[in-house]
Amino acid sequence: MRISPRIEADLLVTINEKDVESKATIRDIGMEGVFIRGRVPSPKVGETLFMKYDLPGYIPLEQSGKMIRKEPSGIAIAFYNIDASTKIKLWKFILDNLGILNVCPYCGEHYDEVLPPICKRCNWRLDFHLPDYFEYYEKNHLLKKLYSKADHLEADQIGRLINFVDVDLLKGRGSGGFQEFVGTSDVMREVFSKIRRVAPTDIPVLILGESGTGKELTALAIHERSPRKDKVFVPINCAAIPETLLESELFGYEKGAFTGAYHSKVGKCEHADGGTLFLDEVAELSPGLQAKLLRFLENQIVERIGAGSGKKVNVRVIAATNCKLDSAIAEGKFRKDLYYRLDAFTINLPSVRERNEDKIVLARYFLKKFSREMGASKEFTEDVAKAIMNYDWPGNVREIINKVRKAIVMSNGSLLTPQDLDLDSSDASVERELSLQDVKQKIEKQKVKEVIEISGNNMTKAAKMLGISRPSLYILKKKYNL
Predict the structure, then answer these.
(1) CATH class of domain segment(s) 6-96
(2) With contact defined as beta carbons under 8 Å apart, do 316 and 220 qualify?
(3) Residue 28's beta-bridge partner residues?
């Protein structure tokens, strides 16, 4: 009994980048693999093969897989983990070619007429064309694979496996970039939980975190699990566009609005109508643009530069910054009213140095991912784990990605050392000392906690005792999850 539907196909395929005399053909394809017939190489069972083939309507797909069975008529190949974008394309191709069936594509049960909503034999849902079917398939496919493996696991392994399940939140539909959002630490499970809770709503979200912690991935994860998932996700980096151009990028302009405006332009806010607008580095907006953004958030009306009237749109706004907004507000660089408008729900992304065991989880994940992509076989030496755990990773996940990818390319052998990752041996032998900022935050958190307890949770009294405003106290309370 299958846990993935398969269809007959007739797709030319190139194997290991070589054209064979009589071109091989994919005759059977599913979400987990293919059966190839024709003149093919003579691989051994377990050998990795690289395939390139066309799905009608898509650019050529490139995938790797393991040969699991050889027959006189051809070979069966199981896919390695494929990225989410390719997975979606495969699913759409299979769905378009299922046609009108009277046989369950999972268990082979025959029906006199068309398929029922649920198979009476295997209990799989068969209403393939419903909008939520792919998400249903992904979850049940994962669960069935887990059940098949669970009997062979020890109790501690099952516990770790349960911790990984929340990661599936970020590996479903949409961008393949979700697969880079992994972790099993308590702080990351809290992030996954917050994404799950806020995604179905329409309220604005403010994402706080250092550079490289995955703010855009978080925003995209929220969008992909919201009712707007079939609409556009429009990101804009407010720090990457000159201030003189940013207003027109956000709100657009009419033809003739200024010198050089030879045609009308739709801004990001208008383009995101029905979907989600992601404002990265929102703290970099000028005071004037902050005021215009606040007005847009309040009335959802886009006013193009040079237009006589505005246009009503329906946009969910998610904003992000690595800036300390309480300091920016105190210094008059960020509007307090805009902060309260954006801060309906806050997600604080932890830095890699706060994620403890996730450091090695991330490094090993990217090692396997990039090794597969590059057709390499690489492993870490025993002392790499210690070096990874003791390094600060100031560049966060982005730095892990860059170091691992570079190590795979530059290393000569199959084993990667701390030196291949540009981690000095001293990093592996010396425990990390707290930075001045770490110490400051630790003391600040403890002090705020004590004062709130002393004041009996009276925020006005606590703020006076600390010598700060109530809004600043609420910001600190959220920052430290008190």
Answers:
(1) mainly beta
(2) no
(3) 8, 35
According to CATH, what is the number of the domain 186-348? 3.40.50.300
List the CATH code of the domain at 352-429.
1.10.8.60
Tell me which architecture the domain covering 436-479 has in CATH: Orthogonal Bundle (1.10)
Written as six digits, the tokens of 75 are 């070979």
Please return the burial class of 363, using the count of CB atoms within 10 Å of its CB with bins 0-12, 13-18 and 19+: buried
Neighbours of 361 (CB within 10 A): 19
Global pTM value: 0.55
> Which amino acid makes up residue 55?
L
CATH 1.10.10 residue window(s) in the chain:
436-479
100-121 pLDDT, tens digit per residue, is 678 888 888 888 877 888 888 8
Q: Are strands 74-79 and 61-71 parallel, antiparallel or unpaired?
A: antiparallel
Closest CA to 78 of 129, 114, 33: 33
Give the Cα-Cα-Cα angle 376, 380, 383 (nearest 5 degrees).
160
CA distance 198 to 66: 39
Looking at this protein, which amino acid is placed at residue 214? G
Q: What stretch(es) of the chain map to CATH 3.40.50.300?
A: 186-348
Q: Which two tokens stand for residue 386?
A: 């210690």
